Amino acid sequence: MNSLADQFVMSQEKADLKADLEEEEEEEVTDVVCAESHLKDGEMMEVDVGRHNVLLVRCDGVYNAISNQCTHYGAPLSKGAASLSCAETLRQENYRGRIIMVSRDDLLPYDKTRLSKVMNAESDSLLMRRMEFFHENDIEVWLRKEAVSIDTNKKTVTFDDGLIQSYDQILIATGCRAKCLDCPGADLGNVLMLETPDDARRIHYACMGSRTVIVGTSFVGMEVAAYAIDMASSITIIASSELPYQKTLGPEIGKVTMMVKGVKLKSGIIIEADVLIVGIGVNPNSGFLKGSPISMDSKNYVIVDKYMRTNIRDVYCAGDLTSFPLKMVEGQRVTIGHWQTAQAHGYGEGYTEMVLKGQFGNMKFLAFYLKHDKVVAAAGLNVEPAVSVVAERLAEGRVITKAEAMSDDLSWLKLQAL
Question: Residue 69 has what pLDDT?
Answer without folding.
Answer: 41
